[in-house]
Amino acid sequence: MKAKKLGKALFLAVQGKNEQEKQKIVKNLAEILEKKKRTYLLYQILREFEKHSRENEVVLTLSRRIEPKLLEKVKNDLRKVFGDECVFKLETDESVISGFKAKSNNYLVDASIKGLLEKLKLKSAS
């Protein structure tokens, strides 16, 4: 397999895993590469992994921390927009007031009260 495919496979393999499980997956990959005398691919695989991670990163900005169940519901709904492979980076920003903003390289979903107020302000000014 080429490094590009292995990088994507690694990205998919660690989705939803905790740190211990991720470390085990990476360790297993390194052991396989060592057995096949292909450790030289590791750097390229990790570069592809990082590239894939950046392409699928969604910055989710919340006004405050929310309960895990509600956060998972929001993430699941956003996956319908951004795709199943997206990776969420959580941020908090009190200026959002309430709701959330989700931003990727290609899309912005603004479900915040601040965003709604700004739209109303623009609409009333015109």
What do you see in this structure?
By secondary structure, this protein is α+β, with helices and mostly antiparallel strands. The protein folds into 2 domains: 3-54, no CATH class; 57-125, no CATH class. It is 56% helix and 17% strand. The protein has 5 helices and 4 strands; from the N terminus they run αααβαβββα. A 4-stranded mixed β-sheet has the order 2-1-3-4. Strand 3 (99-103) and strand 4 (108-112) form a beta hairpin. The radius of gyration is 19 Å and the shape is elongated. The N and C termini lie far apart (58 Å). 12% of the residues are buried.
Comma- or semicolon-separated keywords:
single chain, 126 residues, 2 domains, elongated
Number of domains: 2
Strand arrangement, major sheet: 2-1-3-4
How large is the radius of gyration? 19 Å
Q: What general outline do the C-alpha atoms trace?
A: elongated
Q: Which class best fits the helix and strand makeup?
A: alpha+beta
The biggest sheet amounts to: 4 strands, mixed
- Count of separate DSSP helical elements: 5
Estimate the helix proportion, in percent: 55-70%
Number of strands: 4
**Beta-strand percentage?**
15-25%
Topology:
Elements: H1 3-14, H2 19-35, H3 42-55, E1 57-62, H4 68-82, E2 87-92, E3 99-103, E4 108-112, H5 113-125
Parallel strand pairs: 1-2
Antiparallel strand pairs: 1-3, 3-4
Summarize, please.
By secondary structure, the protein is of the alpha+beta class.
